Amino acid sequence: MGQGSFEGRVAIITGASRGIGYAAAEEIVRRGGKVTITGRDADALAAAVKELGGPGVALGIAGKADDADHARSVVDATIAEFGRIDHFVANAAVNPVYGPILEAPPAAVRKVFDVNIIGAVEWIRLVHEAWMKDNGGSIVTMSSVTGLGASPGIGVYGVSKAALIALTQQLAVELAPTIRVNAIAPGVVKTKFAEVLYANDEEGAAAPYPLKRLGVPSDIGSAVAFLLSDDSAWITGQTLVIDGGLTVPLGDMQQH
Ligand SMILES: NC(=O)c1ccc[n+]([C@@H]2O[C@H](COP(=O)([O-])OP(=O)(O)OC[C@H]3O[C@@H](n4cnc5c(N)ncnc54)[C@H](OP(=O)(O)O)[C@@H]3O)[C@@H](O)[C@H]2O)c1
Known about the structure:
This protein is of the alpha/beta class and about 260 residues long. It has a single domain, classed as Rossmann fold. Helices cover about 40% and strands about 15% of the residues. It has seven helices and seven strands. It has helices spanning about 20-30, 40-50, 70-80, 105-135, 155-175, 200-205, 215-230; strands at about 10-15, 35-40, 60, 85-90, 135-140, 180-185, 240. It is globular and about 55 Å long. It starts with 9 loop residues before the first strand and ends in a 14-residue tail after the last strand. NADP nicotinamide-adenine-dinucleotide phosphate (NAP) binds next to helix 1 and strand 2. NADP nicotinamide-adenine-dinucleotide phosphate binds near residues 44, 94, 189 and 194.
C-alpha cells in the first residue's frame, strides 16, 4: 500500500454531507478508500454520496449524531456493505447557543454536550466493539481553536471542544497500541456552520490570521486523511491546530 493510501480501507464520518466532513470523505475516496457518511438531511446526503462516486464507494445514512440507535445502524450497515471499519471521524457538532455561558439555557448546554461529546463517545464505543478492538484502526475528533482556551461568545461550544481534546488524549492512551486517536482544531473555515462569523466582512474576519485568509474545507480534509493514514503511524493523542497561524503566540505588544 502506498504512502497515505486508503486502498482496502473503510471510514465512517459523521456530519459529512457538506463542509469539513465532506472534504475529508472526498480525500479518502481520492486515495482509494470507501466511506460511510451521515447527516440529518437525507436529500443532501444522497447528493453527497453521488458526488463521491455512488454506491460501492460511498454509503449515506441519515440521522442525528446524538441518536445511539442511528449510530448503531450506521455501524451495522457499514460492516454489511463494506465488511470493515478502519477509520472513524467524530465530525458532527452543534452550536445552538451564543453569549455568556451562565446565560445559556440548560437544555441548550445539554444538547451541545449530547452531540459533541456524549455522541462522540457512543460512536467510538460502537466502532471499537464492531471492528477496531480486534483489528485496530485510527480515529480523528473534530475539535476547534475554541477548545484551546476561553472563547467569549461561544463558551458552551468552546468547553465542549476542550472536552473533546481531553477525550482524545484519554482514548489515545486507553485504546493504544492498536488504535490511534487524534484531534484537529481548526480556526474559522468557510462553511455553512461558520458563515455567521465572516459573511458580512470576510476580509476583516481574515485580518487577524497571519496567512491572511480563512480556511477552506480541503485545508482540513487533507489533514484528516493524514491523521487517519499510516503516514501518521507514530502520532496519537495529539491535537493538530490548523488555523492560518491565528494562535501562534506573539510577544507583548504585538498583534497579528
Ligand atoms: N467551520 C469552522 O469554522 C469550524 C471551525 C472549527 C471546528 N469546526 C468543526 O468542524 C465540524 C464540521 O463543521 P463544518 O464547518 O464542516 O459544518 P457544516 O459545513 O455546516 O457541515 C456540518 C455537517 O454536519 C451535519 N450535521 C449537523 N448537525 C448534525 C447532527 N446533529 N447530527 C448529524 N449530522 C449533523 C450537516 O448536515 P445536516 O445539516 O443535514 O445534518 C453537515 O453535513 C464541526 O465539528 C465543527 O464544530 C468547524
